[in-house]
Automatic annotation (TrEMBL):
<protein>
    <recommendedName>
        <fullName>DUF4371 domain-containing protein</fullName>
    </recommendedName>
</protein>
């Protein structure tokens, strides 16, 4: 792996209301003069707290656990949640303090998702389609919650 260009992080709570963060990195892979941009999903990890200092520590532990070096990071992406994006005391500011080359950019996927959701809610056929899809997902999640899976495998 060459330089990590962007570390993309997003948090949400799961069905059991445990806050988890999704870890995705984007990097440049060069082999035999062939240049590829890779963007693997590295997994989910549980957050130990909701404060910027706690989330930053969790992120740094996971980056180290994955054998990555925060000093190789050249960018950070996250949604515009204030705990993450706050300029002076948010997670992005704390990571920039450790590595000034890890520039922050808001995640355009979140904005695109919000735009799509709001647009689709105004088209009657889309409202019906997404209502049915939500019901399907809800039933699937209820079924999944009843299954006895080891938490380290999910």
């Amino acid at each position: 792996m060459q330089n990590i260009l962007v570390s993309s992080l997003d948090s949400t709570s799961d069905i059991s209301h445990i806050d988890q963060m999704c870890e995705i990195i984007r990097y440049v892979h060069i082999e035999n003069k062939k240049v590829e941009i890779k963007e693997p999903f590295l997994g989910l990890f549980q957050l130990t707290g909701k404060k910027a200092v706690d989330i930053t520590e969790d992120i740094l532990k996971v980056i180290e656990r994955d054998g990555l070096d925060i000093t190789m990071c050249r960018g950070q992406k996250c949604d515009s949640a204030s705990i993450l994006a706050r300029v002076h005391s948010g997670v992005q500011a704390r990571i920039c303090h450790l590595n000034t080359k890890a520039l922050f950019g808001s995640c355009t996927n979140h904005y695109l998702n919000l735009c799509g959701v709001n647009t689709f809610e105004t088209v009657p056929l889309c409202v019906i389609l997404f209502w049915d899809l939500r019901k399907f997902v809800r039933v699937f999640l209820m079924f999944y919650a009843q299954m006895d899976y080891p938490s380290d495998k999910c």
